[in-house]
């Protein structure tokens, strides 16, 4: 790997730093040590926040055109070094190299989008009811932003927060997942090469996620916290952030349904199912978790999906043939096996796969005739498991899909345009995939409802998350 970007250091106040105390990062494909990172303390986190606050005093006054130009330069550098970034990503999180290249492109789409959208943070003029004043609004960056990102998208979840924050005039203290810090630190190097001023972006690395989370959520210098991760941790951070009345954005857990109606194009539905289920071995927040198939096409869909899943190649992400990489750790593998054992014990049948392979690899599985009382109907599996349920009517499918406290993504297939409108309006999710298994786009809002979070990322809504509206009243 290119040592220019594979850096075993944290990044505070414009300097890459080391510490005597470190922690290991393990390649999940071979369980070998990939490298080490400084195990920073909460005191280090406080220092980064203080430096970010000091840098904000000047960064917020930099003309928006200059801020956007730096983010644009970061976009260009990511394009040049995309293969190196993809290799780092594959080795730290296990996803296939082709997927990692796709994530680099996806991550960079946020850099490109916000480099342009940052120029469009428009205010407005407001008619005065009394006529003796001029009224207007302007939008200004909220201040220091704390960003906490997960391991499953180690670059895209970073750029989706950092890009809008930077163009808005905010400074950022980023805490990446301890399993996958190298992609985040590589982005810090990209920012440095692009000319981002000292103190505007910090990357703090530590195994003390709880302690760092509390500091970032409660430190009064931090004006906003943006978190992607589990609902349980999100709740804790929101409670802590309330002590200083912070702005919060939370992209939390999901339990995505995938509905196939009898009037669907079954071949396209199977194709969408593979796309929506197996990215990063099913370890994504918008991955399909529950397949609801109308009884008239249940057997046909089950057979075709089984054939498609049986062909998926499992292996090291750096192998060209690999389509499914490893689970991130033993805990993730154990949960997959727990859900399968529970479903089978309650009557589900395996049509293909389902065996634990060497190390953290697991053969993708299709489970048919899964009962609604199975654990997998209620909990997010986060693994390469297709659980198939049967339904009779449209109303039943909608009821089953909404029978969860989560509401991040939902998918359905139908060739009936009226049904498409009806069902999309009734599903309780922040994002609906209609005849597609792929949702994400930098120009569209990403986020959920219910226990799946609050706020939106991407699009002009994602920029607004980092801006305060200030009202100006001029007496005349």
Describe the structure.
- It contains 14 helices and 22 strands.
- It is an alpha/beta fold.
- The chain has two domains: 267 residues, 3-Layer(aba) Sandwich (Aldehyde Dehydrogenase, Chain A, domain 1); 186 residues, Aldehyde Dehydrogenase, Chain A, domain 2 (3-Layer(aba) Sandwich), CATH 3.40.309.10.
- The chain has a seven-stranded mixed beta sheet with strand order 14-15-16-13-12-18-19, sandwiched between helices.
- Helix 5 links the parallel strand 7 and strand 8.
- Helix 2 packs antiparallel against helix 5.
- The protein is globular, with a radius of gyration of 23 Å.
- The mean pLDDT is 97.
Strand content: 15-25%
Structural class: alpha/beta
The radius of gyration computed from the alpha-carbon positions, rounded to a whole number of angstroms, is 23 Å
Tell me the span between the first and last alpha carbons.
64 Å
Give the class-level CATH name of the largest domain.
Answer: Alpha Beta
Count of DSSP H/I helices: 14
What would you call the shape? globular
Low-confidence stretches: none
Instruction: Report on the biggest sheet.
Output: 7 strands, mixed
Q: What's the number of domains? A: 2
Q: Average pLDDT across residues?
A: 97
Reported by name, the CATH topology of the largest domain is Aldehyde Dehydrogenase, Chain A, domain 1
Count of DSSP strands: 22
The appropriate CATH architecture of the largest domain is 3-Layer(aba) Sandwich
CATH homolog superfamily of the largest domain: Aldehyde Dehydrogenase, Chain A, domain 1
The portion of residues assigned to helices is 25-40%
Provide the spatial order of strands within the biggest beta sheet.
14-15-16-13-12-18-19
């Amino acid at each position: 790997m290119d040592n220019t970007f594979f850096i075993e250091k944290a990044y505070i106040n414009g300097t890459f730093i080391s510490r005597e105390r470190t922690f290991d990062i393990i390649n999940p494909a071979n369980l070998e040590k990939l490298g080490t990172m400084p195990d920073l303390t909460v005191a280090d986190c406080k220092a980064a926040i203080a430096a970010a606050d000091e840098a904000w005093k000047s960064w917020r006054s930099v003309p928006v055109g200059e801020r956007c130009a730096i983010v644009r330069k970061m976009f260009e550098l990511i394009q040049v070094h995309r293969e190196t970034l993809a290799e780092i990503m594959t080795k730290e999180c296990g996803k296939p190299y082709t997927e990692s290249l796709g994530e680099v492109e996806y991550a960079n789409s946020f850099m490109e989008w916000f480099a342009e959208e940052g120029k469009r943070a428009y205010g407005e003029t407001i008619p005065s009811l009394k006529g003796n004043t001029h009224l207007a609004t302007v939008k200004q960056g909220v201040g220091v932003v704390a960003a906490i990102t997960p391991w499953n998208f180690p670059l895209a979840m970073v750029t989706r927060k950092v890009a809008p924050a930077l163009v808005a005039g905010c400074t950022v203290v980023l805490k990446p997942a301890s399993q996958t810090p190298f992609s985040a630190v590589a982005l810090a190097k990209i920012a440095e090469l692009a000319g981002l001023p000292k103190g505007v972006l910090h990357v703090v690395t530590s195994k003390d996620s709880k302690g760092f989370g509390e500091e970032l959520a409660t430190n009064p210098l931090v004006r906003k916290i943006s978190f992607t991760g589990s609902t349980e941790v999100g709740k804790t951070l929101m409670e802590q952030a309330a002590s200083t009345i912070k702005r919060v954005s939370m992209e939390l857990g999901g339990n995505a349904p995938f509905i196939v109606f009898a009037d669907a194009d079954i071949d396209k539905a199977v194709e969408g199912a593979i796309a929506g289920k197996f990215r990063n071995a099913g370890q994504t927040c918008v991955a399909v978790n529950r397949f609801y198939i109308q009884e008239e096409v249940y057997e046909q869909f089950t057979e075709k999906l089984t054939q498609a899943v049986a062909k998926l190649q499992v292996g090291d992400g750096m192998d060209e043939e690999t389509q499914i990489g490893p689970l991130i750790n033993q805990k993730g593998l154990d949960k997959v096996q727990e859900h399968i054992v529970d479903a089978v014990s309650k009557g589900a049948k395996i049509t293909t796969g389902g065996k634990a392979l060497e190390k953290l690899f697991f053969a993708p599985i299709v489970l048919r005739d899964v009962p609604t009382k199975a654990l997998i109907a209620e909990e997010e599996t986060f693994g390469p498991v297709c659980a198939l349920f049967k339904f009779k009517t449209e109303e039943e499918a909608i009821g089953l899909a909404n029978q969860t406290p989560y509401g991040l993504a939902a998918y359905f297939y139908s060739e009936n345009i009226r049904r498409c409108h009806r069902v999309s309006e009734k599903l309780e999710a922040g994002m609906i995939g209609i005849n597609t298994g792929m949702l994400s786009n930098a120009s569209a809002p990403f986020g959920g409802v219910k226990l799946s979070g609050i706020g939106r990322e991407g699009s002009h809504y994602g920029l607004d998350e980092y801006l305060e509206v200030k009202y100006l009243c001029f007496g005349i």
